[in-house]
Design brief:
The complex is a heterodimer.
Chain A (H helix, E strand, L loop, with lengths): L2 E2 L7 E2 L3 H14 L3 E2 L14 H4 L8 E10 L15 E10 L5 H11 L9 E5 L2 E3 L4 E10 L2 E12 L2 E2 L5 E6 H9 L8 E4 L6 E3 H19 L2 H26 L4 H12 L9 H10 L2 H20 L5 H29 L3
Parallel strand pairs in A: 3-4
Antiparallel strand pairs in A: 1-2, 4-5, 5-11, 6-8, 7-8, 8-9, 9-10, 9-11, 12-13
Chain B lengths: L1 H18 L3 E12 L2 E9 L6 E9 H4 E2 L2 E2 L1 H10 L3 H6 L4 E4 L4 H18 L5 E7 L2 E10 L4 H15 L26 E2 L2 E2 L3 E2 L2 E2 L3 E2 L11 E2 L6 H7 L6 H16 L6 E2 L3 H8 L6 E6 L9 H12 L1 E5 L5 E9 L7 H28 L3 H4 L7 E3 L3 E2 H21 L6 H10 L7 H5 L6 H9 L4 H8 L15 H20 L13 H14 L6 H7 L6 H22 L4 H10 L4 H14 L3 H22 L20 H22 L3 H9 L2 H10 L7 H18 L12
Parallel strand pairs in B: 6-7
Antiparallel strand pairs in B: 1-2, 3-8, 4-5, 7-8, 9-10, 11-12, 13-14, 15-17, 16-18, 17-18, 19-20
The chains are: A alpha+beta, B alpha+beta.
Chain lengths: 345, 725
């Protein structure tokens, strides 16, 4: 582990970026969290990963932690701004229901990465969160460490337009910022990502990610083909909506008998008896709601790209957001219905 | 938010104690709050409720007793009132006073009787017979024995907690049992030394509290008695008293600033409140930043410090910004902690300033003039088009107003004004404004200056949104004032034209604020503009119905201004605007004159007489005696017969041109004094003359006379609006 010093500052023994990540994951794993992998579809925030957005729905308790690279095309700065990134790394913890001492446990996690609380100024400032496109909102705090926002802390209240019961507690760490703080560097690109323990050779955040920031900024702002982006958006949306329509056609709650008949037609040869509830359950469980959600995420990212490209007029903006909301909320409702009927996974 | 909740909870608790007869006449109320707690302490709470008496009405006398024996109905009533059968049988009924039928005498009677019965039979329920307008019936005076506070309060206190208003609250327990701003973690409820078993949100009150999250840790602290509370918390590193915390923050700011010779921190009451309610154990650290950043405009630096970091700015004795800042901490750090914290805050501010400088530099790559075209992509309102469209409309209005002003002898640099209008909204496309939206206008002005567009243009753009709040200053230049007016008039008229006028408490586009700003600019500058000039300058066709709404809306804003901002009495304001309110400064001058003169008895008498005249004319019109428009018919002197009416006419004829001359010269107070001299003639007239005379011609003539007097002397204010003192 390197000892990093800056000209005017006390000596800090700081974690590398990857040590920070590992320590936090270990901390939460030791407190019962399942460590999920980063979701492999583009998302703007860890909240949009199905591990948060969908799994906060329904009654099953969960405890999950994962890192999530989060893409925000409009935030790209070609790698020139020391504090802004197109893609930053969130570490997301979801606890359903949130334990009563969730804030205290969170503070312990800061100690675990070398922040001695008694030597710092920590404030919980009111900060409420909402994602209108996902019909989602919550209340909470931004956590300030010596004037730096390092974490968003949210008690989820609604998701997909549905009240959550029980609610979830969400902790989102901004890893780059915390690392830069710990290492006392002014540019995120100077953050030490890793140090080879055999040679002591350090690899910086810039070495790992600068090219990506530059090239993706060029793509997001200049090169992306606007017509094709629109076309992709249309295609993904159509597929998602087709799935949702099929879902509703098949599993409409109020027409149970009809539904059975239809599934019967699909599943069984003519003349077979009416399918049992078990068959409905199987069909429902097989339905690719999760795939529909991935299609929503694709649309959301394409929307962000079009936005960064300056291709969405303000009038269109409202309409397109409404289309995506329609999909996202539709999928969330379908998911909730599916989980309710199929049971605990 | 926490301050409001503290006040509300306090009010609720005190009201509860009062309602429950638990509050001593002599009592003291204290309240405290921190980001983690709300506290109410009341000294002077009774251990037991005061006893109370209550009257219960029973069955009619005839139903209650048959042959002197109580019936089943009487027995049932007695049971309900807690009276034994024996008492019912042995009571010797006296006839009570006959009850009045009107409410006040009945209430008085009850109070008297309660006193009487209370004195006579302390603590005992008794029966009596009532004879009222409704007939005779059996009644009981029931004693409600006070219950112990410890029994009454727990449920009620939980109810008050649940009722506290939060702008945004949450639920956290399954089934959404209760809502509060954040999950409730513990409660302390004490009646002297005893724990009150309050239960809220599944939490049972105890005598344990928790101190500063980091400095004190997880160990609970016992509170034996409410008087110990502040001391216990203070030992656990929490200053619960808001006033004390605020005071300590101010002292600490002073102290830290002292290390910079000649410097002081920039007063900011709103920021003081913010940090007071963000901390439990505050201290202050002074940090500095690279003086190189002082090349950025002060406005940008202060916004970053205040709005984004909640830091106080530090200035020299001359008010110049110094490269220091003050951060209010929620801790007293240990050992080298203070250096770490200072360093941390400096680092964050450096990053923020770097961002701002980065945006500033990037923004300079595209001049404001080149950004005009970009406004076509920025929506003003989806039905009203883009800011580019708005800019065109603003330009037409500004051009017309400038024309009027130049005609009327107020010099306006029209070319600079129109350049400012054209560029006014372009800063909405800059990175700096996207990042710091509160700096819109200001950034445009600073960029205009940096891009060599001239001081007149820069100043006008810079000040366009001022005054935002009524207490803010108005733009210092004529061009800035005209730009501000043109922009707001355009917004208001176009919003009204698509039906977006404010209703009730809803004003999503802040149109009232915009109108207040226009009123303020007209009131406080020498601009020779009246309200109707503004509307006429708007290029769009405005429907008659909308025009009416706009006129009412502006009149309301003028009244608001005169009443709430200038402090004129509401009847003075009504009297003044009833005449007209087109010219703001003229309305103020008339209101001032009327306020000065309204104490005069003569003027008050004129007011009363004019009110009478108005009534007579109205009734005459209603009865069809006067045809519409007939009020203005000429008085025929040959029909004036009574000396009193002749005298009134002569006096009025003599006075009218004098008053009119004074009015034209805006010597309103002199004019009002003159009008007051009319009083004896008016009094004599109403004393001697019957307006509604039998003779039709005489009657019409007298109506014409009083109409003429009313018209001639109501051009400064409508005196009939004045309310007698």
């Amino acid at each position: 582990m390197p000892t990093l010093t800056a000209s005017t500052t006390p000596v800090l023994k700081a974690l590398t970026f990857q040590e920070l990540l590992l320590r936090l994951l270990t901390f939460w794993a030791e407190r019962g969290c399942v460590l999920a992998q980063p979701y492999d579809v583009e998302v703007g925030a860890g909240t949009m990963s199905p591990d948060t957005f969908l799994r906060v729905l329904g009654p099953d308790p969960i405890a999950i932690a994962y890192t999530q690279p989060s893409r925000r095309p409009a935030d790209g700065r070609y790698g020139e701004n020391p504090n802004r990134l197109y893609k930053h790394t969130q570490l997301q913890v979801i606890l359903k229901p949130p334990p009563a001492d969730i804030q205290e446990v969170y503070l312990q996690s800061l100690e675990a990465v070398g922040i001695r609380l008694r030597e710092h100024d920590i404030k919980f400032e009111e900060d409420n969160w909402e994602w209108p496109v996902g019909g989602a909102w919550g209340v909470g705090w931004q956590v300030m460490l010596d004037g730096q926002e390092i974490t968003q802390f949210t008690y989820f209240q609604q998701c997909g337009g549905m009240d959550l019961d029980p609610i979830s507690g969400e902790i989102t760490y901004g890893l780059e910022r915390i690392a830069a703080y710990l290492q006392d560097v002014d540019s995120l690109y100077d953050v030490v990502w890793a140090v080879d323990p055999r040679t002591g050779k350090a690899v910086t955040y810039g070495e790992v990610r600068l090219e990506e920031e530059l090239q993706l900024s060029v793509y997001n702002f200049e090169a992306a083909d606007i017509d094709k982006l629109w076309e992709h958006l249309r295609l993904y949306e159509a597929e998602c909506q087709a799935l949702l329509e099929s879902f509703h056609a098949t599993f409409k709650v109020e027409k149970k008998a009809e539904r059975r008949e239809k599934i019967h037609d699909q599943l069984v040869h003519d003349g077979a008896p009416t399918p049992a509830d078990e068959d409905v359950r199987v069909a429902l469980r097989r339905f690719p709601v999760l795939a529909a959600y991935e299609l929503c995420l694709k649309c959301s990212h394409l929307f962000n790209l079009l936005d960064a490209r300056g291709a969405i007029s303000v009038t269109e903006r409202v309409a397109v957001m409404a289309r995506i909301r329609n999909m996202v909320v539709g999928v969330a409702k379908a998911y909730a219905q599916q989980r309710q009927k199929v049971g605990v996974r | 938010m926490i301050a409001a909740a503290e006040a509300e909870l306090t009010e609720r608790v005190v009201e509860l104690l009062r309602r429950e007869r638990l509050l001593e006449d002599e009592h003291e109320v204290h309240s405290y709050s921190t980001p983690r707690r709300l506290v109410v302490q009341v000294n002077g709470v009774r251990a037991r409720q005061r006893d109370a008496t209550r009257e219960m009405n029973g069955p009619a006398w005839a139903v209650a007793f048959r042959n002197g024996e109580p019936t089943a109905a009487a027995l049932a009533f007695a049971r309900k009132a807690g009276i034994s059968e024996e008492q019912l049988r042995t009571t010797k009924f006296e006839e009570e006073h006959l009850r009045g039928t009107d409410l006040s005498s009945e209430l008085l009677h009850r109070a008297e009787m309660q006193d009487k019965l209370g004195d006579r039979r302390e603590g005992e329920t008794r029966l009596f017979k009532v004879t009222s307008a409704k007939g005779e019936y059996l009644a009981a005076m029931v004693q409600d024995k006070g219950r112990p506070a410890a029994e009454v309060l727990p449920d009620r206190l939980a109810g008050e907690l649940a009722a506290v208003y939060w702008p945004k609250n949450m639920y956290w327990r399954p089934l959404k049992v209760e809502f509060f701003v954040r999950p409730v973690r513990w409660m302390v409820a004490l009646l002297d030394h005893a724990i009150l078993p309050v239960e809220f949100a599944g939490v049972h009150a105890a005598n344990l509290t928790w101190g500063h999250r980091i400095l004190h840790g997880d160990t609970p602290m016992a509170v034996d008695h409410p008087d110990d509370y502040l001391g216990v918390l203070e030992a656990a590193r929490v200053t619960a008293d808001v006033k004390l915390r605020r005071h300590r923050i101010r002292k600490a700011l002073d102290l830290e600033t002292r290390s910079v010779p000649g410097a002081s921190w920039r007063e900011d009451a709103a920021l003081i409140e913010t940090v007071t309610h963000l901390t439990e154990w505050p201290s202050v650290v002074l940090g500095n930043f690279d003086p190189e950043f002082l090349e950025l405009p002060e406005e940008v630096l202060v916004t970053v410090m205040r709005d984004h970091q909640k830091y106080f700015a530090v200035e020299s004795a001359e008010g110049k910004l110094l490269p220091y800042f003050l951060a209010v901490l929620n801790t007293h750090p240990e050992e080298n902690g203070i250096e770490l914290i200072r360093h941390g805050h400096e680092r964050v501010l450096r990053a923020r300033f770097n961002d701002a400088r980065f945006f500033w530099r990037v923004d300079q790559k595209i001049s404001l003039e080149d950004r005009v075209e970009m406004l076509k992509g920025v929506t003003f309102h989806k039905e009203l088009g883009t800011y580019w469209d708005k800019t065109q409309a603003n330009r037409t209005i500004a051009e017309k107003l400038a024309g009027l002003l130049n005609e009327r002898g107020t010099s306006v640099d029209t070319q600079a004004l129109l350049k400012a209008v054209e560029l006014a909204k372009t800063d909405l496309t800059t990175e700096l404004v996207k990042e710091f939206t509160e700096l819109q206008g200001i950034v445009g002005g600073l960029y205009a200056r940096a891009q060599g567009l001239g001081e007149t243009v820069a100043q006008a753009i810079y000040w366009q949104y001022s005054p935002a709040a009524v207490e803010d200053p108005i733009p210092p230049t004529v061009e800035g004032q005209v730009l501000g007016i043109a922009d707001r008039v355009q917004t208001i008229v176009s919003m009204f034209s698509i039906g977006l006028e404010p209703t009730g408490s809803k004003d999503p586009y802040a149109l009232r604020r915009a109108a207040n700003a226009i009123v303020k600019i007209l009131a406080e500058t020498g601009l020779p503009l009246v309200r109707s000039d503004l509307f006429k300058a708007v290029p769009a066709e405005v429907a008659a119905e909308t025009q009416k709404k706009l006129a009412d809306f502006f009149q309301e804003r003028v009244e608001f201004w005169l009443r709430d901002m200038r402090g004129f009495a509401y009847d003075v304001v009504n009297a003044v605007v009833a005449v007209h309110s087109d010219n703001m400064r003229d309305a103020i001058a008339r209101a001032e004159a009327l306020t000065a003169e309204r104490g005069s008895e003569d003027l008050a008498a004129i007011g009363a007489a004019f009110k009478r005249i108005k009534n007579i004319l109205r009734q005459a019109a209603e009865k069809g005696i006067l045809q519409p428009g007939q009020e203005t018919v000429e008085v025929r002197p040959e029909l004036l017969t009574d000396p009193a009416e002749k005298a009134l006419r002569d006096a009025a004829n003599e006075l009218a041109p004098v008053v009119e001359d004074l009015r034209a010269r805006q010597e309103y107070q002199q004019a009002l004094k003159k009008i007051a001299t009319l009083r004896p003639y008016v009094d004599l007239f109403f004393d001697k003359v019957m307006v509604m005379a039998e003779d039709r011609a005489v009657r019409s003539n007298r109506l014409a006379l009083i109409g003429e007097v009313l018209g001639a002397f109501s051009r400064i204010a409508d005196f009939s609006e004045l309310v007698g003192s």
